[in-house]
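If you are new to this repository, start here. Below is one unmodified record pulled from the training split, so you can see the exact layout before writing a loader.
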Amino acid sequence: MFTTEFLITSLVVVLIPGTGVVFAVSTGLAQGRRASLFASLGCTLGIVPHLLATALGLAAVMHTSALAFQLLKYAGVVYLLYLAFATWRDRSAFTVQPVQARGGALGLVAKAFFLSILNPKLTIFFLAFLPQFVQPDTGSPLLQLLGLSGVFMVMTFGVFVLYGLLAHAFRKSVIESPRIQAWLRRGFATAFAGLGTQLALSER
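And here is the target side for that same chain:
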């Protein structure tokens, strides 16, 4: 079940920069190492609803229902464009802001969670990707699916944390340069807008 092919493919998929990676990196730069951990946790938890949809067969319904896919897709587009707008308009300086307050930590986790849950491509990914590695004659397909998904989620969390920590490592040079901060904000805003546009124009 946990073949080398599965592990390598999953790692490649997780390493490819997407909305979660951009959010983890921007959070690591803007709010520090601890904040990036909460952002990574939220992005990882956002995988759970997609996993459940796949396991319960709802993904198959969404895969064949153009309306269901379009509704979820455009909800994701709106959220990404909102993040792009908010990031572009933000003029506050990057400062060291350890996430200590309960509300702050939960807010980051919730924001990252909704970022992942509003990505219909994740459900389609689970529907198309995970079943290829399930071996019906070696045990319960559902348990295998859950196991494969668990490994994928651990990989996701680990890689996102690494991205966030790398971003945190560059904080000092970023914090000391308002000009770099401005360009980074524009870059992150453009990335969110680009991802939203790509999602809006994507087919199934």
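Two things worth knowing about this chain: The chain has one domain: 19-201. The mean pLDDT is 77.
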